[in-house]
Automatic annotation (TrEMBL):
Chain ranges of the Ammonium transporter AmtB-like domain: 96-398
Membrane topology: Multi-pass membrane protein
Annotated keywords: Ammonia transport, Membrane, Transmembrane, Transmembrane helix, Transport
TM region(s), chain numbering: 26-47, 59-79, 100-125, 137-158, 178-199, 205-227, 234-252, 258-279, 291-313, 351-372
Organism of origin: Vanilla planifolia (Vanilla)
UniProt-listed Gene3D superfamilies: Ammonium transporter AmtB like domains
Pfam families reported for this sequence: Ammonium_transp (PF00909)
Protein name (record): Ammonium transporter AmtB-like domain-containing protein
GO molecular function: ammonium channel activity
């Protein structure tokens, strides 16, 4: 089998290909993939009730595969950068009651008709928000705000979890959750660091800022938990980690290190306040069952990062990423340089982009949910919700015993017994 003519060189690579940049992109893509499998699979599997461990992990696994198929089919020619198979925080809002078959339809439909609109508008050279000069380095608006709003909207249409799950929803395996969270954090180096498409200074700065902001955010959230609740919470620390990662994403390669630390302080405190205080006082957010607080960790943190990049973006770093266009400037530097109007304009377009992404996702996500429920129920039956994984998939996370035996529960008499179930008989 011969190589194409343009690849028949002594080193089997075309002259235009920078091997260093290509190697970093392959590495970054691998890191992003590891965030999903096994990262998010472990995180979601461990942070939910035991009876939902398989379902939560499977929903993440399915979405990874579905998005990968959708990417080359529908996104080749419209985006400045491809969509990520990772960023599906919408899932976090819908755990513990969503019909898996409805989820199978929702993922490709939302990616195609909602995500694609925002991504094209902000990242394609032909998008109107891109032309206006909106700054979103790696997806604070495009991914996190979009999925956070979509998650809350879809949660409204699906309805809440069972009351027993809402009252008590303990994680079944904190060590597994922590392992997944660690993979998520470390893999973020590839997501933000891969945004420039080159192994350059901007990529290095993006990786450094990602970790600095995240570390500060985690520590601030932890300190607030200790101060107000008198106990250091591992789940709280993971939430602070996620808000830091989300907040720095739109700004990772566009701000200095000190600004990344300031963003970490804000991402560890403002989403904490909205989750722990305002959530109980805002009727809409209070009554929509957002299972893992996606609105606060992604929509609030993503909006915060998108606004702060409009304030802290440094002109020299903007030049590295956007080129010579002078309209890209943070308000802080615009005020310093006597270009206040340019700085306020930048803040204005950032806010416009935020409003646009919110509006698109509310409307399109609602439309998708209404269409799907004409074909299949969005919500599981109440009896299935009571049982969980075994009723949905015929599998349980921790029910496998020695020699292929499975712990079987007699639903009618509520007596547990061991039944010899061979692997082939379980299929």
């Amino acid at each position: 089998m011969s190589l194409p003519m343009n690849l028949q060189t002594s080193e089997t690579s075309p002259e235009w290909l920078n091997k260093g940049d290509n190697a970093w992109q392959l590495t970054a893509a691998t890191l992003v993939g590891l965030q999903s499998i096994p990262g998010l699979v472990l995180l979601y599997s461990g942070i939910v009730k035991k009876k939902w461990a398989v379902n939560s992990a499977f929903m993440a696994l399915y979405a990874f595969a579905a998005v990968l198929v959708c990417c080359p089919v529908g996104f080749q020619h419209v985006l400045r950068r491809p969509p990520s198979p990772l960023r599906r925080p919408t899932l976090r809002s819908l755990l513990a009651r969503t019909n898996f078959y409805a989820w199978m339809l929702f993922v490709p439909m939302w990616l195609t008709f909602s995500y694609a609109v925002g991504a094209f508008s902000l990242w394609s050279p032909n998008g109107f928000l891109f032309k206006m000069g909106v700054m979103d380095f790696a997806g604070g608006f495009v991914i996190h705000l979009a999925s956070g709003v979509a998650g809350l909207t879809a949660a409204y249409w699906v309805g809440p979890r069972a009351e027993s799950d809402r009252q008590r929803f303990p994680p079944n395996n904190l060590q597994m959750m922590l392992a997944g969270a660690g993979m998520l954090w470390m893999g973020w180096s590839g997501f933000n660091g891969g945004a420039p498409y080159a192994a350059n200074i901007d990529a290095s700065l993006a990786v450094l800022n990602t970790h600095v902001c995240t570390a500060v955010s985690l520590l601030v959230w932890l300190c607030l938990d200790v101060l107000f609740f008198r106990k250091p919470s591992l789940i709280g620390a993971v939430q602070g980690m996620i808000t830091g990662l989300v907040c720095i994403t739109p700004a990772a390669g566009l701000v200095q290190g000190w600004a990344a630390m300031v963003m970490g302080v804000l991402s560890g405190s403002i989403p904490w306040f909205t989750m722990m205080v305002l959530h109980r006082r805002i009727p809409l957010v209070k009554h929509v069952d957002d299972t893992l607080a996606i609105f606060h960790t992604h929509a609030v943190a993503g909006s915060l990062g998108g606004i702060l990049v409009g304030f802290f973006a440094e002109p020299r770093l903007n030049h590295l990423f956007f080129g010579d266009d002078p309209k890209y400037i943070g308000l802080a530097y615009a005020l310093r340089d006597g270009r206040a109007s340019a700085g306020f304009r930048q803040m204005g377009v950032q806010l416009l982009a935020m409003a646009f992404v919110v509006g698109v996702n509310v409307v399109v996500t609602s439309t998708i949910c209404l269409i799907i429920r004409t074909v299949i129920p969005l919500r599981l039956e109440e009896e299935v919700i009571k049982i969980g994984d075994d009723a949905i998939h015929g599998e349980e996370a921790y029910a496998i015993w020695g020699d292929g035996e499975k712990l079987v529960q007699d639903r009618s008499s509520n007596v547990d017994r061991l039944a010899a179930v061979k692997p082939l008989e379980m299929i």
